[in-house]
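thread: overnight batch results

M.L. [08:02]
morning all. the overnight job finished for the chain we discussed friday. pasting input first so we're all looking at the same thing
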Amino acid sequence: MKTITSVLSGIVSEAFEKCGYDKKLGNVIVSDRLDLCQFQCNGAFQGAKLYRKAPIIIAKEVAQILAGNPVFAKVEAVNPAFINLTLTDEYLAAFCGQLANDENLGIPQVEEDTTVVIDYGGPNVAKPLHIGHLRSAVIGEALKRLARSSGMKVIGDVHLGDWGMPMGLVIAELMERNPDWKCFSDDFDPAVDTAPTLDVNELNEIYPFASGKSKQDEAFKEKAHTITAQLQARKPGYYALWKEIIRASVEDLKKSYSKLSVDFDYWYGESDADNYIPKLLKILEDKGLMYESEGAMIVDVADESDKAPMPPVLIKKTDGSVLYDTTDLATIIQREEDFKPTSIWYVVDKRQALHFEQCFRCSRKASLVNEATTLEHLGFGTMNGSDGKPYKTRDGGVMQLSMLLDTAYEAALERINRDNFDSEEEACKTAQKLAVACIKFGDLINHRSKDYIFDLDKFLSAEGKTGAYLLYMVTRICSVLRKGGISDEGEIVIDRLYTDSERELMLSIALTGEAFEHALAERAPNYICENAYQLAVAFSKFYHDNHIVSEEDEQKKTAWINLCRLVKKLITKHLDVLAIEPVERM
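M.L. [08:03]
and the structure it wrote out:
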């Protein structure tokens, strides 16, 4: 289904062509003055330059052609050369009726086969998730669902940090605490021997302890370096212990992400890319791109057009170990071989922009991906406290994600009306959904590239642009349907409207396709949040202006009920793309 502006652009383009002008001038946009008109075309301004003619004359000629079209209730050529357009109520209602029963709910579908790999999440194993992991998970999940809703094939990969120095630190500390474990013995036999079962809480304590210890104890740090190299060489005992660390960590990570309604198609990590490093090195050598510099192996990626220094990509350190650049480049080879992606999106902190620019340039020079494949770093800003600095606990530490969710849950539980629920269990589940909705919407309503202030009280408010407001509006529609004894199943018929508030609501409904199109083009879920909010606001006005359940005119009542059902369906779709679960009552 085409967006309403693309449909109108087609109509206006034909009018320009009939008047002897280029049809490309007929682009229609949403009016920025809805008190004057619903849509507008500004093509006459460009036409004036092309045809050396007064722009208002062109606008009037085109407007005269459009005036006879039954789609428009009003067409005006307004000085200096705007073409103002207002739809008939019949056409607006018919468009909404078509959208209501479209299998994609009016969301434009990509015209070509597109496969996107989204790299998001990026947690390190043996470490609990903290609030620094929130944005990548929340934004990445929304982008994955947005792309899928637009007809793309999408593959989500968590890309675990599981193969570098942190692993060496954890294993080194486990060795110091448990020197008698068989996995630390040189005669460890993986065919017979096994690593001990690990507890994730112990792992979560060990890594920060070992990390701090390495900064004070040079010998311990060197030991961890040696263990890291031996692990990467697949020393049997270390490798068996590493696999147990991965098992315990991933099991815990899946539980944490599940609370946020975030899931991944693949749980690959840097370790999976390790097998592709030899191929990467051969490609770089064969193409003459890699050379030695002060004992390290590097690739130059600077360009003459660069306005700032562009450091080379460090492929191998002097001790032969590899870095993030190396594993990220090897991962590109893996993804190209496994998925043949049209695009790879990296949802990672914008402060990593230089790293990705280096990797992308290197991959292009080495032809690691198809020439037409796009590589995009979708950077995001930081989540800050009221002081404008990265959010911390009261004692100044980095807050664990579980603590943030628990805090939000307790606050949400205080805000809901427990009398509305059949059981305490139902109330608790609703509070959990409300907490997650508020955290996620509070993040996603901001453009991903921007920093934002985390304010739980504001996010939990049932007024304003909040997740709570959207959930409340869904519960209000559910209440209308319950009171009217209306089933939410079957075809939704929208073919007429009766009031001004209905017209405003239908216009918001009709513009859904534009919001999704814009969000996908900019890789920015905030447009979905904004559109959901505008739908909710328009519905609230419609709800207050009309007595839906008590309406005596059955034809009018049926039309209004169908409109309620459509709004619920649409807002729920928006929430689903944002990975937010709706609730029946609050």
